Amino acid sequence: MSQNVYDNDLFFEKYRELRNNQDNYNTLIEQPAIKALLPDLKGKTVLDLGCGYGNNCIDFIKKGALSVVGIDISHKMLEVARKENPNELVEYMLMDMNKIGSLTQRFDLVFSSLAFHYVKDFKKLLYDIRVLLNDGGILLYSQEHPYTTAPKVGPTWTKDEYGNKVHYNLSDYMHSGKRYSKWFIDNVEKYHRPISEVINSIISEGFIINSIVEPVPDKYALDRRPDFKDEFDKTTCIIIKGTKA
Amino acid sequence: MSQNVYDNDLFFEKYRELRNNQDNYNTLIEQPAIKALLPDLKGKTVLDLGCGYGNNCIDFIKKGALSVVGIDISHKMLEVARKENPNELVEYMLMDMNKIGSLTQRFDLVFSSLAFHYVKDFKKLLYDIRVLLNDGGILLYSQEHPYTTAPKVGPTWTKDEYGNKVHYNLSDYMHSGKRYSKWFIDNVEKYHRPISEVINSIISEGFIINSIVEPVPDKYALDRRPDFKDEFDKTTCIIIKGTKA
């Protein structure tokens, strides 16, 4: 089974604090960018992989989706989802992403926000997603940017004497594989894949690439979080949209 | 008109020295990787953008191409091409890449090796290429990797006390636009585009992306050039293959 840091008590609380602050990376940068690529959802069925608190599931219903299945590996995250974001058209399921091959429903959109970098076997995941998609179905997801996941060790930014970031320390980029990082807790497992491996996997598993976005902060975001200017030196995430071929 | 550094005497001589050394980046890494993606050329027509000395034009004929047009902005490069690589099936033309819209022939393959990062208007180039391609035609090209073109100033590598490269200093990645670099001579003009801009431009101008390669050295290359191990930290070029949609 995959690592499940979100059920770690310390991680869960720290993550909740981060997300409760409305001026975080997700709300200011990643979410507006990925939502801008959503197709018309009226009457469509959606699968949300790594649905977390369920906010996106509810948003899909508000945008007209017929039904949404949200899966997550974390019992604690789903507890919050069921309590704060219940909806009769949304089904929350406790499931590891590498088990979605067992789902019997079919979907028009498979969506995932910042979760695929936790997945070891990306090609298997893509294979499973394609099987779950109806003809013409869409995959829309975000993941940590390959240069975010690349470095194996060391500080990832070089700073000047005042503590300002000068440049990102890129290393190990072409070394695909497991990485350990500290994010609230030690040894959070992620999987680094160079951008060519990501894109070629999506294509070879039967998708046509529609667009790729490296989101940057707009003026509103920069006013609220001046430190997000560093996103122009090194974007944190990448968003990819593809259609079932 | 575009910058034409290859007709600068000093640049031309230094570049010729570099390419005459058989153990250079192009021969050991870029060329094997891009050649591996060539389609079957038997009976096909090929356009080589930035053909330089014409070596690839001759190779396409050896691989069975019906005819090849090689264009280059440099009179000096074409002089070498006509002298060292003449062939009745190859036509060398002095032409700026932003003028290819004036060509009346049509091609099955448009090929380009490490030249597109000199082009200011990438979308216009792609538009022109698509018009020049027959149905089902292929675009296969390499360019400097967006990591390579990104930094506006400063040393691009951090080295340890022994002079070994530790990590690449990535900055200005999301700032698309002109860059000046020193390569034999000062102020060589290049155009940086983030990978998302590159890929989305290709898609929006009417191509389906087939594959992307970030080439790395194999054992043979590493034996001859141990310094090429740094390509695993930061790949120098990217190769993209697309089909006319």
UniProtKB/TrEMBL annotation, chains A, B:
Gene Ontology biological process: methylation
Domain Methyltransferase type: start-end pairs: 47-140
The UniProt record lists the keyword Signal: no
One term of GO molecular function: methyltransferase activity
Alphabetic keyword roster: Methyltransferase, Transferase
Pfam families: Methyltransf_11
Taxonomic superkingdom: Bacteria
Cited InterPro entries: Methyltransf_11
CDD domains (alphabetical): AdoMet_MTases
The name this protein goes by in its record: Class I SAM-dependent methyltransferase
